[in-house]
Amino acid sequence: MKTVYLAAPLFSEAECDFNRKLRDLIIDEGYEVFLPQEDSNNIHVHLEKKRQEIIFNKNLAALDSSDIIVAVIDGADVDSGTAWEIGYAYSKGKPVLGLKTDFRTLGIEGTVNLMIERSIVLCTSVSELLNRLKSMQDA
Prior knowledge:
It contains 6 helices and 5 strands. It has 139 residues and is α/β, with parallel strands linked by helices.
């Protein structure tokens, strides 16, 4: 079974709810999903630096072992952590599907930042993302 790393902002209740919903839809397509907000951020260590080190290392290992990265890139600009995960995955030659359901664009510069847009396969709806994942299931 292929694994998806779900890169997305996770700083509001709405973002976390959307991420869980998206994770469940991806699982329904036959993938395992690593969701950082649940699979690495639930660390209970008293020292903040140690907690950050553990989270970073867990996320990095998950990126390295994942087959596909799905990145939620909604908003006026891409979340900085998600942008880093996209760049890292791209540098490793991993396929990155970017999900932008937000209709705001950068105008003449494109839909999202040029460096992000050139690093991903852009999907503009959840159904488009799921269809792309279906086509990648046996590839």
